[in-house]
Design goal:
Blueprint (H helix, E strand, L loop, with lengths): L4 E7 L4 H5 L1 H11 L3 E7 L17 H14 L7 H4 L6 H11 L3 H18 L6 H10 L4 H9 L1 H15 L7 E6 L4 E5 L4 H11 L2
Parallel strand pairs: 1-2
Antiparallel strand pairs: 1-3, 3-4
Length: 206
């Protein structure tokens, strides 16, 4: 059955507000899942450390903002990874997610959850290949296929996501784009609460 609403969801594995949105998305699927499908896209938040420019704090500045994010999302995340073993880029874990999704959405999303759980709560650098592979094994992925896709098709799919995000001027994560079968579209960006997401779905169905 074709569902009346499609949500194109732009995320990034290093984005604290994307991680904080997971419980909200889970509730939305439980309570309104019959109304929508979700297409997951990676946005490319951090290509490398050059985005910090000449700031002497470098990656540590990200960790300083996580206590504030913790208050907003309603649970604690540990920003010390940004001083102990900071991820060099969000691209490798993004590519890994696209590779994992080639083994089915359920396994792909489980992998993405476990990957970010290690970053936000266990201070694991998820940009390192060895840590990505460890999570892939924990998620029960076919490792031969995953390694192949991580080096090949996953990268291609991620680059397609980057081009798509650029074409839509996506610069804040998460971003939700709602589309109805009748052609109506709307867009929300940032940390969005449950009621506002429900309203966006209801409004596009009017």
């Amino acid at each position: 059955m074709v569902k009346p609403v499609k949500i194109t969801y732009f995320s990034d594995p290093l984005c604290s507000y994307c991680w904080g949105s997971e419980p909200i998305l889970s509730r939305l699927k439980r309570e309104r899942g019959e109304l929508f499908t979700i297409e997951y896209k990676m946005g490319g938040l951090m290509p490398d450390w050059s985005i910090f420019g000449s700031n002497p704090e470098g990656p540590a500045i990200v960790g300083r903002h996580w206590p504030e994010a913790s208050e907003k999302i309603g649970f604690k995340i540990d920003g010390s990874v940004w001083t102990t073993d900071p991820p060099a880029s969000s691209y490798p874990p993004s590519i890994a997610f696209k590779a994992a999704m080639l083994q089915g959405e359920e396994r792909g999303l489980q992998f993405y959850f476990l990957l970010r759980e290690r970053l936000f709560h266990k201070r694991v650098n998820i940009a390192k290949t060895e840590n990505i592979m460890d999570v892939a094994e924990s998620a029960g992925l076919n490792m031969k296929s995953f390694v192949r896709d991580f080096e090949g098709r996953g990268r291609e799919l991620f680059e397609e996501d980057l081009d798509f995000a650029k074409s839509l001027s996506i610069d804040l994560f998460p971003t939700y784009i709602f589309s109805s079968l009748s052609g109506k579209r709307s867009r929300l960006a940032g940390f969005i609460d449950f009621k506002r997401l429900v309203s966006a779905i209801d409004e596009i169905l009017l």
